Amino acid sequence: MARPTNPLLRTIGLTIRSLRRERGLSQEALAELAHIDRSYMSGVERGLRNISVLNVARIAGALDVPVRDLLGPREVVRPSAQAVAPRRGPLDDIAREDWKPGRYLSLC
Description:
It is a single chain. The chain has 108 residues and is an all-alpha fold. The protein is built from 5 helices and no strands. The chain has a domain of 65 residues: Orthogonal Bundle (434 Repressor (Amino-terminal Domain)).
C-alpha cells in the first residue's frame, strides 16, 4: 500500500523532477551533485520524504536555481497529441528586407 503524500511535498518533488529532467540529469547524478543519497532523492521526487530546508538548498544549488523555484508549482508544458501549425498572417511571406513602413499598411 502506497503512503499518502502531502500536497506540498508532492509539488516540491514534481518540481525537482521536472528541473532535473530538463537538465538531462539522472536521479543519481543530481543526488551526487547535491551530496545526498540517491534513494532519498527518489523519495523526495515522489513526495514521500519530508525534505529539510538544508536539502532543498542543496538541491537548488545542484540545479542552479533559487530555492524559491523549488517551493511552488511549476507549469509543465506537455506536447499535444496533434501538433498545431502556427497561424499565418497576410504579411508572413514578405521578406524582412522588403519591409518599408507604410508600404503595406496605411496608418490613416
